[in-house]
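Q: Structure tokens for this one, please.
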Amino acid sequence: MYDLLTMGRISVDVYPNDIGVGLEDVTSFGKYLGGSPANVAVAAARYGHKTSVITRVGNDPFGTFLRRELKKYGVDEAHVSTDPQLQTCVTFCAIKPPEDFPLYFYGRFPTAPDLQLTEADINKEAVKESRIFWSTLTGMCQEPARSAQLAAHEARPRDLLSDEQHTILDLDYRPMFWENIEQAQQAAQQLLSYATIAIGNREECAVAVGDGTPDEQADRLLEAGVKLAVVKMGANGVLAKTTTSRVVCAPTPVETANGLGAGDSFGGAFVHGVLSDWELDKVLDFANGAGAIVASQIACSDAMPTESEVQEFLAQYGRNF
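A: Here is the predicted structure, written as tokens:
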């Protein structure tokens, strides 16, 4: 049984060694494991959890690299299948701190290996038994991955989950992958019928449940049936609500080197807090700290911290565990 089983996107992330310039002026790069569900699995593995990811790579050297990286980080690659025709995806990023990190996706149009996942690629028993199952809205942007992801969720209806099990929906929305926003909205509503926890920033929550204040968005997520709604508010921190509680956690200030992996680090740390049965304010504080650590570094997967590293970081701000 897995502590965390994620599903969806994986890629080779190619980051420049030259900071503050456009890709046209970069002279050298480094390559890393990437893709949000894969990174979340890596982040949770750093805290000692048994994790895996349901995804696909190409039958090429980059696919071999991603499998090797998953093993290196302690993520079980048993649920990684190989596409016989498509090449492994590569994502380039220009790094222009503090806020400009444009992404360029290669090998995702018109489709990608992980968007060709089918129901046959899913071990439904593993999905059903995992303590946490994590999927993303992006995984619904195209068939056959859409049907595969719905089949995975159908294997673990939320009303049949134990008290120790959670189904987390990452409202990850990337408009370039969708024909229109209405299609994304419909997909979000479908997934919310299975989720017990939903996580997204203000814009992503707006896609799922409409615009409004963070409290209004969280309330709508709860009305959709989740037990816990988490709304990221950028510089204003993170709001989390249940039907009986409301917690706001202030951000941890850092100098941003690369903001792209912070959300995945937050996700893996959030999973660790939930699996550890911490109080909600402690979960959010820890997840915020983990996200800040990765935001302060160039790499994403390589930068995922351990629990002691997050605790030491938070102690600098008087937030002791």
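A few notes: The chain has a mean pLDDT of 95. The longest strand covers residues 51-58.
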